[in-house]
Amino acid sequence: MIHRIIGRLDIKGPNLVKGIHLEGLRVLGKPEEFAKYYYENGIDELIYIDVVASLFGRNSLEEIITKTAREIFIPLTVGGGLRTIDDIRSVLRAGADKVSLNTAAINNPQIIKEASRIFGSSTITVTIEAIKQKDGSYLAFTDNGREHTGVEVLGWAKKAEQLGAGEILLTSIDKDGTGEGFDLELTKMISKNVSIPVIASGGAGKKEDVYKAISNGGADAVALASLLHYNYLKTHKDRENGEEGNTEFLKSGQSFSKVEVTSIEKIKNYLQEENIDCRN
């Protein structure tokens, strides 16, 4: 199996943002510049998530998608605020290859079945945002981790597969943005119990974490944000900062304190040294 390295870009308005536990979103810059750099340096796929779309009841990524699709020729997944078949159709027409459903899928699971029938299972990714509970179980959240659903994660992952999802984007809210590594227990639990690809997301701070998500967690792919963004910020001092929003992080010169400076090439080379198949 060829394991994929995916760049995850969380978008708020015109800006690329990053938070911790999906909160405290900090502006990092223009998403199209990061996306182009990742593409030129060997990323396998990109995922765009509009992190406030569900909150405002709309997705505002179509313009960004169209710009990206003109210059970048790798699979592009888009999520956030997609509630209907028409919403899905619109972002696919704009240039997305796949869509990611979370809130809409939990509120109306049949949209997975309908969308996979119309557009094909390979087009439909179900995002699961998970928080570990005191009793050791995991519950799913929506609206970028803001809304409690009471839905148990493992059962939901199995149901999503049965309804026709082509893959699962599995985000640990507990680990997101911390640089402390993926939640391997969560990743392994889902990957062992579904037959569709599982993308691990949330927590990578070094290339060894990527290896562990695949070797120990059984992930088919990993979605990276801070680990890639930090390298870009360190190597592009002359970049343009983002527009309005929480730009204090950029102005301060701070860094992601628990994230190493690495690159897509170094990550892939390390995985290959550890006998993990991935694209050159």
Q: Please bin the fraction of helical residues.
A: 25-40%
Strand content: 25-35%
Fold-level CATH name: TIM Barrel
Structural class: alpha/beta
Q: How many helices in DSSP terms? A: 12
Strand order within the widest beta sheet: 1-4-5-6-7-10-11-12
CATH H-level homologous superfamily name: Aldolase class I
Query: Alpha-carbon distance between the termini?
Result: 14 Å
How can the largest sheet be summarized? 8 strands, parallel, barrel
Mean pLDDT: 89
CATH class: Alpha Beta
CATH architectural category: Alpha-Beta Barrel
Low-confidence stretches: 242-247, 249-253
Helix-strand sequence: EEEHEHHEHEHHEEEHEHEHEHHH
Instruction: Count every beta strand, where a strand is a DSSP E run of 2 or more residues.
Output: 12
Shape: globular
Number of domains: 1
Radius of gyration: 17 Å
Describe this structure in words.
Belongs to the HisA/HisF family. Pfam families: His_biosynth. Its EC number is 4.3.2.10. The structure is a single chain. With 280 residues, this protein is α/β, with parallel strands linked by helices. It has a single domain (4-273), classed as TIM Barrel. Helices cover 37% and strands 25% of the residues. The chain contains 12 helices and 12 strands. It has helices spanning 31-40, 53-56, 62-71, 85-94, 103-107, 110-119, 153-163, 184-193, 207-215, 226-235, 248-252, 264-273; strands at 4-12, 15-20, 23-29, 45-50, 76-79, 98-101, 124-132, 138-142, 147-152, 167-172, 198-201, 221-224. It has an 8-stranded parallel β-barrel, surrounded by 7 helices. Helix 4 (85-94) links the parallel strand 5 (76-79) and strand 6. The longest helix has 11 residues, at 153-163. The protein is globular and about 45 Å long. Residues 242-247 and 249-253 have low confidence and may be disordered.
